[in-house]
Each structure stands twice: as structure tokens, then as C-alpha cells.
């Protein structure tokens, strides 16, 4: 039993003797000495940031540069009427915030309350009925059939009056 104690004591002393070598960390001690010897510098001040200036996009009412220009026949051009004009007091519907050519008809629904068209565009598929508005030119849905949605837009004629322009959104098959 006494021999076992001496054996444990001997192994422990040999293990401790191996931990004491100082040659192993000389390079680390030298680097830390160099770092501590460096002069303490000043911290650079925070950069000055200019305040954000809001930008208002003013060309939203102009023609898209990705669409071909419209050729106008000045001689045979339709004249607008002051009797036809959009209602400025009407509350705008959600689908009036998007261009009408971004919509495509994908189907119809019918039930006891009427016939509805399914239009894809503006981030989803929307159910619309006769009398609903869509597009940026006060387009009102006038008729819904199995193959198309008829829309009447009110557009300016360029001379201070307004024109009614009929449009049709045809059914897109295999969509």
C-alpha cells in the first residue's frame, strides 16, 4: 500500500515537472511585451453623416420608357367632352393603384349574387364584379363574360377635356 502511494507521488511530480518549461511561451511573452510598449493612440472621431434627403419621383404620370410611343393622328383625333370626367370625391379602390395592362383574366365565378371575374395581377388573383374600378385611369368594369372583361377608362384628351376609352381584358387560357 505504501509503495502505491510512492508510485502516485512520483508520477505526479514527474507530471508537474513537465509543465514548468518556460521556453514554450517565450514568443508569446515577447509579442505581448511589444504590444504593451506601443503608445496609446487617440480614437478617430465618428464620421459625420449627412441627413437623409427624401426624393419625390415626379415622372409617374409620364409614359413608361419601356412602352412604344403612341402615334397621334391630329386630324382624325377624337375630341374630349367636358361632360365626361372622373369623380375626384370617389374613394379609390385597391386595384386602381396598378396599371391596367398588368392584369390578365384567368377565369370567372358565378353564384346567386352575380358573376365575378378573376384577374391575376397586383401580387395575387382578385375577384371583381361589374362596377368595380381598376387601373390608374378610372377604369370601371362595364361587363363580364366567360371570355373577357370590358373596362371603360376615362383619360384626358390633352386639351383639358376627357375621353372614354373602352378596353378589353381577354381570358388567358392555360394559366
UniProtKB/TrEMBL annotation:
The keyword Lipoprotein applies. It comes from the Bacteria. Keywords: Lipoprotein. This is Pilus assembly protein PilP. It comes from Pseudomonas lutea.
Amino acid at each position: 500500500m505504501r509503495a502505491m502511494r510512492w508510485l502516485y507521488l512520483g508520477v505526479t511530480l514527474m507530471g508537474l515537472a513537465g509543465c514548468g518549461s518556460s521556453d514554450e511561451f517565450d514568443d508569446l511573452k515577447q509579442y505581448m511585451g511589444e504590444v504593451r510598449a506601443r503608445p496609446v493612440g487617440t480614437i478617430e472621431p465618428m464620421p459625420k453623416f449627412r441627413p437623409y434627403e427624401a426624393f419625390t419621383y415626379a415622372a409617374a404620370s409620364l409614359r413608361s420608357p419601356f412602352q412604344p410611343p403612341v402615334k397621334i393622328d391630329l386630324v382624325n383625333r377624337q375630341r374630349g367632352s367636358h361632360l365626361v370626367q372622373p369623380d375626384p370625391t370617389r374613394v379609390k379602390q385597391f386595384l386602381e393603384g396598378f396599371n391596367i395592362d398588368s392584369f390578365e383574366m384567368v377565369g370567372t365565378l358565378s353564384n346567386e349574387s352575380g358573376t365575378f371575374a378573376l384577374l391575376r395581377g397586383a401580387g395575387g388573383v382578385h375577384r371583381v364584379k361589374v362596377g368595380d374600378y381598376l387601373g390608374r385611369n378610372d377604369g370601371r368594369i362595364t361587363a363580364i363574360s366567360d371570355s373577357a372583361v370590358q373596362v371603360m377608362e376615362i383619360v384626358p384628351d390633352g386639351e383639358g377635356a376627357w375621353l372614354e376609352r373602352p378596353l378589353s381584358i381577354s381570358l388567358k387560357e392555360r394559366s
